[in-house]
Amino acid sequence: MSVTYYLLQIPTFFLFLLIISIGAIIAGLGTFLFRKYVNVKILRSHNEVTGFLFLALASFYAFLLSFIVFMVWGQLNDTRGNVSKEGSSAMGLYRDIKFYPDTVESKQLMIVYLDFIYNVIDEEFPNMEQMRQSRKTPESFDHVFYKMEHLNPKNQFQIQLVSEMFNHLNQLATYRGLRESSLEQEIPSPLWWPMLLGAIITIFCSMLLDIEHKRLHIALNALLGIFIGMIFFIILLLDHPYSGSLSIKPQSYKQIFTMEKWDNELHVKK
To answer: Where do the structural domains in the chain lie, given as residue ranges?
Structure first.
């Protein structure tokens, strides 16, 4: 597991404070020490060149960070879309099984299918939150395939229904595969080095600027460190789609259990 995953185990608000505090301390303390030990008169004579260099480097670094943010945001949206489609397929298959004419076979299939749904909610998604693969859920999903393959449609209408059920089941399998493959999606380690090095270079160039008021210079650079920290915080939240406060939840699967509960309550009242 990556360091970013372990950082996401910290409560979101405290993680936010931690990251911006680190940025502020590095930039502010670095500026204080720099102003203390470097001759300001030398900086003043090169201020125009330093200002142009800072503007160029800051622009390139802002472009790099925006590229990373859009990349992880796009990956998160794609993953959410696939999970939503998976949920729609699961819901469609639930209705197909629920209203299959042969009540004996449909009840047996429904028991197996609800066991799979339960495992997705109770075992697979919690494991994905910890970036671990599930073992029990794929086995229960295989049981759904096996049970459906042994349905015995007795007329043309039931044959069409079984065909539609297999269509939903195959769609569900496809989107489940996409969800499982997205588990390992995260920013590669080589991309973190340019981001960290770019932050250091940008803050260092801001130290080279000749600002007469020392405290103002320290405060401005601390604000720059806070702003860079906020961008890093956003990237961290978006980097792991199944962990942290923005993690994807199995809402559609939970809705299936809710619908089954309502249906059972309705039958009890009748």
So the answer is: 3-52+66-269
